Amino acid sequence: MSSSSGRSEGFRNAATYPARAAARAWRGPLETAAEDVLASPEAGRVLDSALAGPLPEEFARSLVRHNVLERVMQELAAAGELERLVDRALASPQSVVIVDRVVASDAFRAALDRSLSGPELHAALASTSSGLADQVVGSVRRAAARLDVRISGATPSALAGVASRGLALVVDALVVAVLSLLLGAAVGLVASLFGGIRPHALAGSLLGAGGAIVAIGYFTLFWSTVGQTPGMRLAGVRVWGPRPDGSLTAGRAVVRTLGLALAIIPCFLGFVPALFDSRRRALPDYLASTVVRYDDGPAR
């Protein structure tokens, strides 16, 4: 059986030998002829004519239409060749040189300056900062409002309690202290030009009087104009007067400011009535016929 198959294989090889010999004989001349054709000026003109026509665009559209590039990239990624090529490119010293040249170029610096100074970046930063500040302020307000409910032991109400009002008072006290310090520094600087203020007791009295004037002007101005101080705005509360629109006159604002001072002096005892009063009024509210409300409705 094996000898028969061997003889058959020998017959086939003998039969195809002339064709294989002819192919080997013609391979060299065919390759030479093809090279001559491609190197001829006529072939160059044909190629230039083809590239000048719609062929490149049609070729590009065909590549896009059949997703050739995506398929090639997917094959490279699946075989791990894409990662290897990227690693080789990044590890190449020439890549480092090219990146350094790009970073050091005037065009890159100009583009970076435009990006950093552009209104889009400023708007994004402002939006982020504003959003963060709103979240912090909202959290502080809600915490103070919940504490109002716990302290009073009553159901949530549109009237502000002692926790929210205390938060506002602390912030306002800090603002008044800073303003008084700035005023004292300005007065001291001016007085130093004329030898200072003598005696020191007089300087202390003037400083105290200046602080009182700043405090009265601060609360009176904000309560009579917008109905809330910066501290009250932070706490989300507002003073409401007997007028239909809830506004305060300058005189009523002054009375309320004096009532605030009287409530603070005896260890803040003037705010104790707000714990028991049905309208959560403290001594300043009794004197000026006012109430303090949340800006956003009942506490939650």
What does this structure look like?
It is a single chain. Helix content is 75%, strand content 3%. It has 300 residues and is mainly alpha-helical. The radius of gyration is 44 Å and the shape is elongated. The N and C termini lie far apart (100 Å).
Describe the SSE topology:
Layout: H1 2-39, H2 41-52, H3 55-65, H4 68-79, H5 81-91, H6 93-104, H7 106-117, H8 119-152, H9 162-192, H10 200-225, H11 230-235, E1 237-240, H12 250-264, H13 283-288, E2 291-294
Antiparallel strand pairs: 1-2
Helix pairs in contact: 8-9, 9-10, 10-12
What is the compact description of this entry?
The protein is mainly α. The chain has 13 helices and 2 strands.
Rg value: 44 Å
Question: What structural class results from the helix and strand content?
Answer: mainly alpha
Physical arrangement of strands within the biggest beta sheet:
1-2
| First and last CA, distance | 100 Å
Q: Which spans have pLDDT < 50 for at least 5 consecutive residues?
A: none
**Topology as a string of helices (H) and strands (E):** HHHHHHHHHHHEHHE
Percent of residues in beta strands: under 5%
Work out the number of β strands: 2
What would you call the shape? elongated
Mean pLDDT: 79
Fraction in helix: over 70%
What is the overall number of helices? 13
Largest sheet: 2 strands, antiparallel
